[in-house]
Design brief:
The complex is a heterotrimer. Chain A is an all-alpha fold. Chain A is 60% helix and 0% strand. Chain A is built from five helices and no strands. Classes of the chains: A mainly alpha, B mainly alpha, C mainly alpha.
């Protein structure tokens, strides 16, 4: 397979930060506008997939290692469950940040207003954890499938029974 | 009548998906059939939440002067559909990686040849 | 942190602790392998102890309810509304019973896997997925909400499918896992369709609230048919049993033991739908008859297809299908008699037999699969034509196999006999033919296991097999299950009275289930 041309590589490198910022915007504003953890994470992961398609899997596999993605994914999941367990003074998953003076603690006024960023309690933090996990998970998935395809129907890793 | 069209579309998608899973031989076509089946069920789930002339459920209360009893569409089916889509993505990823491994071992993707476990 | 606090929050803690540990395992795995093994075993032991204490409390004190995210665990219906608004976990006798089974078999499988997969690659992911399977099983058994049931059902099936394909350098392992995943995801879509039908009609997802609002329309009957077929597809009863031999054979042996318990979690979901959700409608007698029919077909077809098999694990998986038929027969007979005045004598005895058989089956079938794995570990083959004379060198494994084989055939004094006798006696009053077929299947089971014992363990020893038994951790895993079998064989009366009877009673008592969530 020929190497992708210079135009594709340049345009992909220019577009990639915009996609990432857009995806992170959707993750963080999940408690106000449509969006949230999975949706924003999928958009950011598609930015990484764009880089994978533009530069080829050999190049990208040198920069992004699968073990780092695994650690990132575990951190995302662990922070989600820790936030749920921190509410255990009342119950599991209790929203202990809503109504308090800590970060994200305001309660929005009742009525048809869009609310503001400082509300939501424990929800934006959980959105960020889920977004991190989804980014790591989806990129690892596509990277693994791309590396599989390079094995070229070989008998590598196949054992007779 | 026009409000029944999404339900009919969902039924057609489910039937097409079941046909692909039951009667096609290529493993990738079976995976596509599973995805179409799940899309049909998701469409059915989210159509249940629709109410006529209603706003999206992102405010804490209706705009002033709205006189319809149910002024917002139901938010719960939206959450259920989102969860189901995420599960569908995970299942599809696993099915495709199994298909790649099977191609590595058997050299073919025809489900009649992939049959070492017999009887 | 005293005992009453732990017991109050126990339904959520039992699900949260393995979930936390499952995602901590890859991080620990980067540092040291021994620490990871010890960590996983410690988590499984803590789960088992917590489950035993919690189950004892549920059996003596009644239903425990837990609302996730509320200011107080028992406030299911807030003041301003008429229906429950959050995800409610509801643990009654039957849920605690199934939870005991799941944690016990997971503990045995965890011990066994330490030595069994020592030489494979990717072990960190293996233990993560094992803990996620435990989370899925406990989630399905503790929940009181239909959509939560679907989510944990999918967690369980994805984790199990990935583990079935664990030894991916064999081609047929991946093939078996592919079939398993296709069947599971179709069953999941059918369950979601039925949940959507029920939600569209009544607007609630909580099982107790649905049961209170149920009006038995035609759409409810369609939802019942879809739910029964989807859960019967996942637990391996006969019209949809084709995936079981393929996937149970190729999985590593400890995972096969856990797959048995995973199928029983789907069986639990089937019973919960038929008894607690539709228990007050007029479909009860027909669904009981359908369950009895599935049970009969499974028993007979399972054991007749098991006899000519040459692969030892494939033979055992056909027997798993046949024993699932016993459970369906027992509880189906109880469901059939649910409205009758006959229920309190014969119906309750049939249900106790079926439910006791669930626990016994998990114990002895798990033990048999673990011994088959031990044979594979030593001789590297599963073909009965090539294995012989293993009793000379593998003494402990032979004893464990004999205990398992006598239990499954229903010989006294083992626990298989106790539960089968309850089923024979009570099902006789529904129709004598059912009892006769059940006894015939039991005789054929004994015949096929005698064939396996004779050809695998008797005879002159094989040439290129080293002397000595399998490593200690595998023996310890098998001993956990054997201890359970021997305990149940010595005191079956106490077990039925104190463990099985509360489970059967809470399954049949739909009004107490509704009252625990909705108040009066």
């Amino acid at each position: 397979m020929n190497e992708p041309s210079k135009i594709v590589k340049t345009i992909a490198s220019i577009i990639f930060p915009f996609i990432t910022v857009y995806g992170l915007y959707i993750i963080v504003h999940g408690h106000l506008t449509p969006g949230g953890g999975f949706q924003g994470g999928a958009i950011t992961a598609s930015g990484i997939v764009l880089l994978l398609v533009a530069f080829g899997s050999a190049e990208i596999a040198k920069k992004i290692k699968e073990s780092h993605l695994s650690i990132l994914e575990s951190i995302g999941a662990l922070s989600f469950i820790s936030l749920a367990l921190l509410g255990l003074s009342a119950t599991f998953f209790y929203n202990f940040l809503a109504g308090s003076n800590f970060i994200f603690g305001r309660i929005p006024p009742f009525g048809s207003n869009p609310g503001d960023m400082n509300t939501g309690g424990v929800l934006p933090l959980m959105n960020i954890s889920v977004g991190l996990k989804v980014i790591a998970g989806l990129s690892a998935m596509v990277l693994a499938l791309a590396l599989f395809a390079r094995l070229k129907r070989g008998r590598k890793g196949v054992r007779k029974k | 009548m026009i409000y029944n069209i999404p339900y009919m579309a969902s039924a057609i998608l489910v039937i097409v998906g079941l046909y692909a899973v039951l009667f096609k031989r290529n493993l990738i076509k079976i995976a596509i059939g599973i995805t179409v089946l799940e899309s049909g069920v998701n469409l059915f789930l989210i159509t249940l939440g629709y109410r006529e002339n209603a706003v999206a459920p992102i405010y804490t209360n209706l705009p002033e002067g709205t006189s319809i009893p149910e002024g917002m569409t139901l938010p719960v089916p939206q959450a259920l559909t989102l969860t189901s889509i995420v599960i569908g993505v995970a299942v599809l990823a696993l099915i495709l990686s199994f298909a790649v491994k099977i191609y590595q071992h058997y050299g073919t993707l025809d489900s009649r040849e992939v049959r070492r476990l017999r009887e | 942190m005293n005992m009453s606090y732990v017991l109050l929050h126990a339904p959520a803690l039992l699900i949260a602790i393995p979930l936390f540990a499952a995602f901590l395992t890859p991080i620990i795995d980067r540092f040291s392998k021994r620490v990871r093994n010890i960590f996983v075993l410690a988590v499984l032991i803590i789960e088992e102890i917590l489950m035993i204490i919690f189950a004892w409390d549920v059996f003596t004190n009644g239903i425990h309810v837990y609302t996730m995210g509320a200011p107080n665990p028992t406030s299911t219906v807030p003041l301003q509304s008429a229906v429950p608004v959050r995800i409610v976990l509801e643990v009654d006798g039957m849920s605690a019973f199934m939870g005991l089974i799941s944690t016990t078999v997971s503990l045995a499988a965890g011990f066994y896997s330490i030595a069994f997969v020592r030489k494979e690659t990717g072990q960190g992911k293996f233990y993560t997925l094992l803990l996620l399977m435990l989370v899925g099983m406990l989630g399905m058994e503790f929940t009181g909400d239909m959509f939560n049931l679907f989510v944990f059902f999918e967690i369980l099936s994805i984790a199990s499918a990935a583990l079935v394909a664990y030894r991916s350098y064999y081609g047929d392992a991946v093939e078996g896992a592919f079939k398993y995943l296709i069947i599971s995801s179709i069953a999941g879509s059918i369950v979601l369709f039925a949940i959507a039908i029920l939600y569209g009609q009544y607007g609630v997802l909580n099982i107790a609230a649905l049961a209170k609002a149920m009006k038995s329309t035609t759409l409810d009957m369609i939802a019942l048919v879809l739910l029964i077929s989807a859960f019967a597809m996942k637990c391996g009863s006969v019209p949809m049993h084709f995936w079981i031999p393929d996937s149970y054979t190729v999985a590593p042996a400890s995972i096969t033991a856990m797959l048995v318990v995973a199928s029983q979690a789907s069986l639990y979901a089937l019973f919960r739908i038929c008894f607690s959700l539709y228990g007050n409608t007029s479909y009860v007698a027909t669904s009981g008859a359908i369950l009895i029919l599935f049970g009969l077909l499974s028993m007979f077809i399972g054991v007749t297809m098991a006899i000519p098999q040459k692969d030892i694990k494939r033979l055992m998986s056909y027997h798993a299908i046949s024993q699932t038929g016993y459970m369906l027969l027992g509880v189906g007979a109880g469901l059939y008699l649910l409205g009758n005045p006959d229920f309190s004598t014969h119906g309750m005895a049939a249900m106790e037999g079926g439910i006791f058989h669930i626990f016994n089956h998990a114990l002895y079938k798990g033990l048999l699969f673990l011994t088959a794995g031990a044979i594979f570990y030593k001789t590297k083959t599963r073909n009965l034509n090539e294995i012989r004379g293993l009793a000379h060198s593998m003494k402990f494994t032979t004893i464990f196999f004999l205990i398992g084989a006598f239990s499954i055939a229903g010989l006294p004094p083992f626990n298989g006999f106790a539960s089968k006798l309850l089923i024979y006696e009570s099902v006789y009053h529904v129709n004598p033919i059912l009892s006769i077929i059940a006894m015939l299947v039991s005789i054929l089971t004994l015949a096929s296991f005698m064939k396996v014992f004779h050809s695998a363990f008797m005879g002159p020893p094989m040439k290129d097999v080293e002397r000595g038994d399998v490593p200690k951790s595998m023996l310890f895993g098998m001993m956990v299950l054997t201890a359970g079998i021997i305990l149940f064989s010595i005191i079956p009366g106490w077990v039925v009275g104190h463990i099985v009877h509360p489970a059967a009673q809470s399954l049949a008592n739909q009004s107490a289930y509704i009252r625990a969530v909705m108040g009066d």
